[in-house]
Amino acid sequence: MRPFRNVAGKLLISLLIAFNLLAMPAYAQSNPTAASIDRLVVQLSQNPESAGIRAGIAVYNTSTGEWLDRHDAEKTFVPASNLKLLVTAAALDMLGPDYRFTTEIHTTGHITPKGVLQGDLILKGYGDPSLTEEDMRTISAELKAKGITSIHGRLLVDESYFDNVRLGEGWMWDDEPYGYSAQISALAVHKNTSTIRLNPDKPVGQTSSLMMKPNSKYVTVQNRVTIVEGTEQNVQIDRPRGTNTVILTGTIGKGAEPYEDDVTMEDPALFAGDVFKQALAADGILVSSDNLEKTTLSSNSPLVTHHSEPLRKIIAELNKESDNFYAEMLTKTLGVVTKGKGSFNAGTDAIADFMVKAGIVNKYRQVDGSGLSRLDLISPQQIVELLTYVQTREYKEDFEHSLPVAGVDGTLKDRMKGTSAENKVRAKTGSMSGVHSLSGYTLTANGDKLAFSVFLNGVRSTKPASAFEDAVAVLLSSSLSQEAGENSTTDSPSSTLAALLNPILEQESMRGVAIGMIVGSLDHKNKEQILYARNADALLTPASNMKLLTSAVALRELGPDYTFKTELYVSSLPDKQGTINGDVIIKGYGDPTLQTDDPSGIKDGTGLLRFVQALREKGVTRVNGRIIVDESQYDAKHLGTGWAWDDESYGYNAQISALAVNRGAVRLDYQPGVREGSPIAVTIHPKTDYVQIRNEATTTPAGTENTFKIERERGKNNIRLTGSLPLGEEPDYERIAVEDPAIYTGMVLKEAMEQNGIKVSKQSEVQKGVIPSGSYKISELQSPPLRDILIYGNKNSDNFYMEMLLKRLGADKKGAGSAEAGIEVVQESLQKNGTNPAFDMVDGSGLSRYNQISARQVSSVLISMANHSSFEHFYRSLPIAGVDGTLKNRMKHTDAENNVHAKTGTLQGVSSLSGYVTTKDNERLYFSIIMNGYTDASKNFTDVQDQLAAALAKVSLTHH
Length: 960
Fold this sequence. Notes:
Elements: H1 13-18, H2 34-46, E1 54-61, E2 66-71, H3 84-94, E3 102-107, E4 110-111, E5 116-118, E6 121-125, H4 133-145, E7 150-151, E8 155-158, E9 193-199, E10 209-213, E11 220-228, E12 233-238, E13 245-253, E14 259-264, H5 268-282, E15 286-287, E16 292-294, E17 304-307, H6 311-320, H7 324-339, H8 344-357, H9 380-390, H10 396-401, E18 426-432, E19 435-443, E20 449-457, H11 462-477, H12 497-505, E21 513-521, E22 529-534, H13 546-558, E23 565-570, E24 579-580, E25 584-588, E26 594-595, E27 606-607, H14 610-617, E28 622-623, E29 627-630, E30 665-671, E31 681-685, E32 692-695, E33 698-700, E34 709-712, E35 718-722, E36 724-726, E37 732-737, H15 741-755, E38 759-760, E39 766-768, E40 776-782, H16 786-795, H17 799-814, H18 819-832, H19 855-866, H20 871-877, E41 901-907, E42 910-918, E43 924-933, H21 938-954
């Protein structure tokens, strides 16, 4: 599983025994009833290091058929690697413990008596996750044994057993360089990674030595890691999206151990082919063609077939080492074998079929096999039901033996040593930032077998999370009690609002959803009287409610009248003929409203093309130099931490640069063609050569399926339109994010100059740089004031606006135009104004699922802003129910219409609404509602929120 961020180190064994951070009740050590586990949950909430964690626990006695504990057991959680239990059980059930993966060698042409293959050699993969460099040498040796001495043809690879979607849904772009996020392909070697090893075996000041295994030219490594004094390792790994260049930076201490890590690559089947080619060469089998290409075999008999170990051994590696790659390869294999398609969707559909067979209702979401995606949602009770079902199957021992054993092996090797759980607990671990889990089996002191699952979300520190899980496992292992119990946690509301709101929150559609909610009065004499609270301190993913924090601090720290500037310089003034024999330079300061005069811009934004007019007014007729774009006010990290790779094409995921026009995107307007069979009609705004459009989409008869799709090639500005659009479909548009928005801005300006009579040299290029010394400032644009920028940003929930604002805060207040610096400003400002700082913020918009905050913390922002001089501007920026923005079509014809001012937030499995409402007797309330979890329709979230808001608008609280 992915490493936990910001973790100091592994738990000390003494912590696990003594539970220093999480003292175990004395009676609970011998009586693991629901009450004793509940005591641990209370301690979890009281410990400052673990406050905000929400726990889901299910314990079932498989020997007696009794539930021993269910604590929020039906709520769905992000499970991390505990999701691997699903693919393990399904694979054993559907493929069988003796299933073996194959890898084949095929040939075309013929083999001469001297062993020359007059044709191509084809390496075909069937999803073996365990194929190694040594296996490649074994296959090569078999070819040599068959008399092949050389190949007069090509070496081809066939990965067609799986589809070409190589990353799971919702996986994070900044995880991609690392082995735990390796790309998935049917032909794979060394888990589609190369292991790098840095050795500080040279003098201080020099670059460390580098070794790679397998060593392939397919991956280029730029090693910039410097040796320094000491024993610390501080190595960063980067692989720019869409490339096979790995960049290593940082330092390694002269006295440090060698640094080792796995790095990934694009299109790994070709990497496997290169490794195999080296194995052939080592056996003296030379391939005449240097080209390594892909192919798709028609049916043919293999010359050589390599078999993997049986599945029972494969799953031991999968679970004991929590191997994401193994899990995903198995998932796609299940898709091929049972559904005829090697895709994530087919694989998870196959697993869903198995879950139905196991009697588990489909009230969960699975999008991958490993649990790396935060779109996965499942409940502890469903996991325990799965574990219980496995106990009835003939493969139960293979399943159990694949799990880590406490204090003995795998990811539990160093946990629970010296306790009653050692060598008794067999369980799957799970760990990601914000997530911890442990599910499996244990034997009680009287020999009963328990199936248990512990899910923790809202985790900010691994120590108390691991200690809690271990405490529960130790309690269960020492249990003599068969006392059954069932419980859940709900804050005790301090008002009669409970009778009004609880029935709404407890609707069936919310059964699997965790809800944090708080309501308070702004008009109470104490100014912050809490009227209702339910799970108000649980740390939850807020989605766009994070924009409330960015907006509030921007108003506080920059002021409502703050404006952004964009500057235009020339390196030399025009001569008498109007020619600039030098460069034109545009310097950006993060204006989010910079736009061109077309439908892709927003109303009343900052017109970039005014720069063209400024040049003309200076008499400029020709530019012989470059167009330089200066984005140095902000850092070069254009995507937010934890943003999903599969969102990159879309305008809501635009790249963040100090210089960006049209919110870093182009707009594509499209509609069906004039007749059936004709290409769809598409128009791009602005009209620019910066992006290339390949229109393969066709018009189909009215009433047929709409399969129209727009995609941008990763790392490039090539947009492809595919699928079909039926006649009769209404015209629509999509905003597509561009790669490198500063260059895009420069290109749009250059094209506008040429269209307006200013000639630009054919040799002129748009390049990044900074303003040369001695340059002349020609013009400066000013954005609308911040108060107006926030109106657009909040009412339309614009991610780009908020990310630009966040980096501006960092640049202005910390001297660093980065998200990290901006977040530091936000946290310092909020803490100074009464917000508990124990929350996680990694971006300004809420697009990242690393963000986690409680309803109480959000409400404290609402309270502090209500008492601030810029409250009017903050309040005006929020959508109004039934009137405008993202609430325009919600709460109509209720007491909330034109009353509720609130910020919405939406991600898959996440919904939030926080803001202000006035009651029937004119009392001003603040409220925050954050929902995380599975429900079968996103409308269920907003329906419940709307009912809650309408109820608050209608209530009378005059007796308070």
